[in-house]
Amino acid sequence: MEMKTKHIKMPFDCVIMDKESKEIANPYTGQKALLTPEAIAVYDTIKGAELVGDYERMRKGIDWFRVNYPKEYMVLLD
Fold first, then answer.
1. Phi and psi, residue 25, nearest 5°
2. Strand, coil or helix: what is 4?
3. Quick one: which of 9, 32, 61, 65 has the most CB atoms within 10 Å?
4. 42 vs 27: CA distance, rounded Å
5. For the chain, give me the number of helices (H) and strands (E)?
6. What are phi and psi of 9, to 5 degrees?
7. Residue 32 carries which DSSP code?
8. CB-based burial, 59-69: b 16+ in 10 Å, e otherwise
9. How many CB atoms neighbour CB 2 within 10 A?
């Protein structure tokens, strides 16, 4: 199933490496959500920020997800 890319203002600069939407699994529950390339980039940045303790960047990304991808947020980040 292919998602159309949303044209949403990004919460911060991040590298969009994926060309197509793909399913991302929650590392704790195994539940999956289909994300656009932009959402994958933000998700990856959130997880990286969590690892290095950049909680301001992490919070910006999480807030962006809650607004723009609420269902996916509930599966992956809540």
1. -100, 140
2. coil
3. 61
4. 16
5. 3, 2
6. -65, 130
7. E
8. ebbbebbeebb
9. 9
Instruction: Give the total residue count for the chain.
Output: 78
Token readout for 56 is 């301001």
Structure tokens that stand for 33 in this block: 């959500």
Asked if 23 and 33 count as a contact pair (C-beta separation under 8 A), the reply is yes
Cβ(41)–Cβ(17) below 8 Å: yes
Question: ∠41-1-78 over CA atoms, to 5°?
Answer: 45
CB hemisphere CA count around 43 (13 angstroms): 29
